[in-house]
Design goal:
171 residues, mainly beta, 9-stranded mixed beta sheet, 1 helix, globular
Amino acid sequence: MKKIIKIILVLFVTLTLGACGSSEEKDTNKPTKTEEKKEEKIYTIGETVTYTKNSKDLIHFTVDSVRNTDDRNEFADSQPEQVIIIHYSYENIANEDDIYFSSINFKVIDEGGNVCETYPASINTYPQTAPIGTKSEGEEAYGLKQQSSKIKLIVELDYSGTKATYELPIQ
């Protein structure tokens, strides 16, 4: 009986290891199929991005203005070359979850290619949570590491990586 079990075990291991191997040769000269990357639209001041999922418009997002401010916070750790305030608005058209946009959704890049941080400057408009059918607006202040006449703003529209890119002149 032990001999039969050993023979069955050896056959099982042999067949298992044989199944793991492949006699098929791979042709490394064949071109691999790549997805075509869509040309990403670059937005500017006043242009609205519509976030759509499953052919349904869910959210509108617009950058209304980008302006310089002379406001400096004496207690701030950073000493940026320039401080800007971004004014934006958004609308929850049909997103079941309430929406809220703030600096957590933004990546600001100055003309020197520096990713910039928020700055504790005075702002006048604070964003609010927007349920379906409502709108809100907000402002965020950023300290730029290099004097710039324009910035690049990358907005994360959802948590799965959907982004919109803006190139915005500083007014």
